[in-house]
Every structure is written in C-alpha cells, then in structure tokens.
Amino acid sequence: GAVVFVECQSMRSQIKGVTGKELPELSIGSAEGAACDTDLRNLFVGTLSGMDGLNIGVDSQTKGGFILNAFGRPERGVHGLTLLFAQRAYLRHESPPFEPDKVRATRLQTVLSDCFSSLIDWTEEAGRERKRQSAEPPARAAEDEAIVASASDEEPEPVSEPDDNEAGVEEEQVSSEGVDMEPAQTEPDTGSGAVVKQETSPDRKPITLLVAE
Known about the structure:
Number of strands: 6
Strand content: 15-25%
Number of helices: 4
C-alpha cells in the first residue's frame, strides 16, 4: 500500500533574523519533491490555491526538516509533507494573549478538510497502484516460463541427408580441380628439318618452340 504523513508547524508571520519577509499564510514543504510524489504535492497546492485570500508558498520558506528528510521515501510508498502555518492565518493577534480569529480559523478548517479528503483518496489509489505493480513480476515470470515450455515441446526440424548423385558430382568437381593438367607434349614434323616442341613457361602457360636440327 501507500502511507502519507503530514508534519504541521506554526510560527509568527515575521521573525527578525529568521524570516527576511512575511511568511505566506500556508507553506508546503516536500524537500523539493524528494519526500513525496510530485502528484501529491501538486494536489495540495491545487486545492489550497483555489481558496480566495490565502497565500501559498511551495518549498520556499520551509523545505522540510529532519522528519521529512528521514522518513519521506516515495520510492517505498512512504510520502511526507510539511505544512507551515503563519499565525495570522488563524489568530487575531500574533502576540499574547494570542486571541483566535474565528472567521480565519473556520476558513482554514474548511481548507484543510478539503485537502485531507483529497489526500485520503490519493493514498488509496496510490496503494492500489503499488499492489498492481508488485503483482506484475510473478505474472510476467509465469508467462516467460510458459513460452519456454512451449518452445521445448516443439519437435526439431529433420536434417536432410545429401543426395548420392549430388555428392558424387561434388566429389568429381573437387577431384578435377585438384589435378594439375600438363599440356600434351607433341613434336610434329614440319618437313623442313625443324622440330616443333611444346614447353611450359614459368607461369605455366604453354609456348611453342621451333628448333632446327
């Protein structure tokens, strides 16, 4: 299956030496996408962005701390997010006595309810997808085994024996090619007291010589 954990934090909108400018009302951290599936992060961002008057930050002021970096392992089906709330998102004043703002608190409650409902649906679908993926390798292995078994059952094609006539012709050709035929030596009579002799040149070409006697 799949698991999603959400780490929630709250801090003042602006702290000297900590924040250079005022924080967004809600910041989402995902360790720059390393702690969760990007589809999950985009789901949160899309749901929150649809709320009027709510400023959203993504991997800006908060990218995630120890918990997110230590336990967010999306490749193992464990996804983590950090939600950082600026106190003005639900308080009337960010100083003692920290009086709640009912209107802001109600709006934030509605936003988070929508976000976590979507998160539950996403987690269930992600879990089903992981189960399908984990079931695929055995099925593929069984398919491969069936292919191998089918191939082994096939009868091998018979090897044809060479025809005796063809073999005899081939042997005759080999024998004739292997014999070095010398040109016939003739000494015809020319009638003039000379003799014609046949000789072989160094490159084995026949030549005719006329020798007087």
